């Protein structure tokens, strides 16, 4: 008898719900014996499920990335911790908050281990036994179709078994009736259609067939098609409305998480580093050249609003500071300025901007106002960067596009990485960018001048 082909998720998800709820309740007597009450258990269960629904904690699919699962775990942990302390603060005079932190941390670690174990065991099961797979066909042709065929063949652990590719390139080798018969006879689970290969009428035929036969249909957009974007579908009444892009930081929960991270990180840098480094640098900057310790410059931030961005002054006073970017071997840069620019120390005062809320630790780097106006006119999609707060560092900077914009390729790639970041933000991505930024500062960046 052949193994079942991918209907286990209907059992796995409820199983994980039950296991997770049991874990958070069974650990209470060990870590929080003084508040081990029925009301507290009801509170834990209810808010665990509410938070899980809000952050899509159990929405993990065979194609979900590891970093996305980690992101869900971190969100669940932070929000569960906040609500746990809120409960204690309202109902109890709890003198040992470290117990609550330990309890929730241990709970999340155990739950995370179970979650990852199930995820990886299913991958191993698909490879070793051929179970938990989905039978798929592809209709159409083109570059994207070839990429998808290659993906299915090389990633067996995802659990997709490609049964056939209906390529209509040569005057439609098979009529739709044959295609539909094959799908029914072979018990195909999912149909992938290349939009670039089919007319609207043909797409409608396939959609009608899938709707009438309970088959899942997915579309493979052409690289030039608007559907290749990160779209989001809403309904106004019964009218479907498609938004051009989905920005995770538009969600209130994500905004709160990112703001908490920004505040905590900026306080850590301001108190732990700037508190003693700032007086030392002030003396060195003043000794070498006249002028203020800090350099402030108007830049464009969230929603294109202007704000003053702060840096340690690294150049001698000059009338072109707000007009021209620093270039390699720029005579305006002082000796101490060259050092702090090379090590990115000159950017540290921007943590005050982060604390005040007009910047974030990670985000698109803000440009001086004159350059923003120039790029807005000449670079496609440049203004999209202003949908979120600018950052001290960003995805573009960790991929070799920091510092001076030497040519059109530099600014186009910077915009490309910035748009990818705002459409795919996660707290883990922020942490990864911060770590890479620190490593680049230690190693030295060839464009840090």
Write up what this structure looks like:
- With 449 residues, this protein is of the alpha/beta class.
- The chain folds into 3 domains: 9-129, no CATH class; 134-228, Rossmann fold; 252-443, no CATH class.
- It has 14 helices and 10 strands.
- A 4-stranded parallel β-sheet has the order 2-1-3-4, with helices on both faces. The protein has a two-stranded antiparallel ribbon with strand order 5-6.
- Helix 6 links the parallel strand 1 and strand 2.
- Helix 1 packs antiparallel against helix 3 (38-54) and helix 3 (38-54) packs antiparallel against helix 4 (66-91).
- Residues 1-7 have low confidence and may be disordered.
- This is Undecaprenyl-phosphate glucose phosphotransferase.
- InterPro entries: Bact_transf (IPR003362), EPS_sugar_tfrase (IPR017475), Undecaprenyl-P_gluc_Ptfrase (IPR017473).
Keywords, separated by commas or semicolons:
single chain; alpha/beta; globular; two-stranded antiparallel ribbon; 449 residues; Rossmann fold
Summary?
The chain is α/β, with parallel strands linked by helices. It has helices at residues 9-26, 28-31, 38-54, 66-91, 97-129, 143-154, 176-185, 200-212, 252-288, 335-342, 350-356, 369-378, 408-423, 427-443, and strands at residues 134-139, 160-166, 190-194, 216-220, 232-236, 239-243, 294-300, 306-312, 360-362, 391-393.
